[in-house]
Write a structure and sequence with these properties.
The protein has 14 helices and 14 strands. A hairpin with a 4-residue loop joins strand 12 and strand 13. It is of the alpha/beta class. The protein has one domain: 3-Layer(aba) Sandwich (UDP-N-acetylmuramoyl-L-alanine:D-glutamate ligase), CATH 3.40.1190. A 9-stranded mixed β-sheet has the order 6-5-1-9-10-11-12-13-14, with helices on both faces. Strands 3-8-7-2-4 form a 5-stranded mixed β-sheet. It is globular and about 50 Å long. About 40% of the residues lie in helices and about 25% in strands. The longest helix is centred in the last third of the chain and has 16 residues.
Length: about 350
């Protein structure tokens, strides 16, 4: 059976529909609108209290966790094995992320628990987009964990057919993860590495990030990230720094383009007007659905894109993480599977 792993942060997300400038001014935080900015745990606590007073919703989040949640929603028949790797913080009396992953049927033997609360992400959502203020929380020790568990993580990841990696704020993490993947490939040369680096890793760049790209088979980028990473380069020039047989998945609001060594394949479905309620986690939703479908059949890339895009569109129409009734899930999946991709 195909095994799909996820490695990345587990956050506490507080999402509020508010004017970004007003919130930043009230918190006395110097941050740029519409991007992700690291903040201290103390500022995150103050921000959490303010956003809760303003009626913010409180969710379990984190990019890898969100993508894993979607894969689990689709994996109702346990078609693939799921595993998660990361550090789970403590919320009150419980480790809510770990409990959720266990409930969804994940192998969590690669999850370390911490008495520290999970990283807090303050998401300020307005018409123009979302501003993220993220603190380290339990992820402050992520570099130590990656170094200390290097061998064990490499062995466990090598048992996966595919592993999805998302960013941490610690600047040392890209190089440490790349080293783990290099070791895992010794045991499993066929390992597929899916990377959603986000601006947290793209903006600073550096040798560690380049080393991580060199281990990547599938690179996920949204419109802003695509523009920032490519600059004046072409997708082929970026692909030259990835694994042979690379795939670049560029997500736009209107569709998705798959770039490979051989071609560029756009997916641009007819879109109906919809009310966008909350775009937070839409990219993670796409990645989780894409990878679940990809692991079903690696030759049906357009089907994986169509399912990811459909569920991402479904997610932005609701507040909070993607939620699916059994009926809705069956309807969406059946429609995509029956299409001739």
């Amino acid at each position: 059976m195909t095994r799909l792993g996820f490695l990345g942060a587990m956050n506490r997300d507080l999402v509020a529909q508010q004017d970004c400038a007003t919130v930043l001014d009230a918190l006395r935080i110097n941050a740029s609108p519409l991007v992700e900015t690291p903040i201290s745990d103390e500022d995150a606590q103050r921000g959490a209290e303010l956003l809760q007073e303003l009626g913010a919703a409180d969710y379990l989040g984190g990019s890898a966790f969100n993508a894993a949640r979607v894969a689990a929603l689709l994996n109702d028949g346990n078609e693939i094995d799921l595993a998660f790797f990361g550090v789970a913080g403590t919320l009150g009396p419980s480790r809510a992320h770990l409990e959720a992953l266990d409930g969804w049927g994940f192998d969590t033997s690669g999850v370390e628990t911490s008495a520290i609360p999970p990283a807090t992400c303050l998401a300020i959502v307005e018409q123009a987009g979302r501003t993220l203020l993220t603190a380290h929380g339990a992820n402050a020790a992520i570099a130590n964990w990656l170094e200390r568990q290097h061998s064990a993580l490499a062995i466990a990841i090598a048992r996966c057919d595919a592993i999805h990696i998302t960013s941490y704020l610690d600047p040392a993490s890209p190089a440490l993860i790349a080293r783990i993947l290099e070791r895992a490939r010794i045991d499993n040369p066929e390992l597929i590495v899916s990377l959603d680096p986000g601006m947290a890793w793209i903006a600073p760049g550096g040798d560690g990030f380049a080393r991580l790209l060199a281990q990547t088979n599938i690179l996920h980028l949204n419109s802003e990230e695509f523009t920032r990473l490519l600059g004046k380069a072409s997708p082929a020039e970026i692909g030259a720094g990835l694994q042979p047989g690379w795939l670049l998945v560029a997500r736009m609001h209107e569709g998705v383009t798959l770039y490979s060594e051989k071609s560029a394949s756009p997916y641009a479905p007819e879109l109906q007007d919809m009310d966008v309620r909350d775009a937070t986690g839409a990219g993670d939703t796409f990645c989780g659905a894409f990878l679940w479908s990809y692991c079903q059949d690696v030759t049906r890339l357009q089907r994986a894109v169509a399912l990811g895009f459909a569920l991402a569109r479904h997610k932005v129409g609701m507040a909070g993480p993607l939620a699916l009734t059994d009926t809705t899930r069956r309807e969406i999946v059946t429609k995509i599977v029956k299409a001739e991709w």
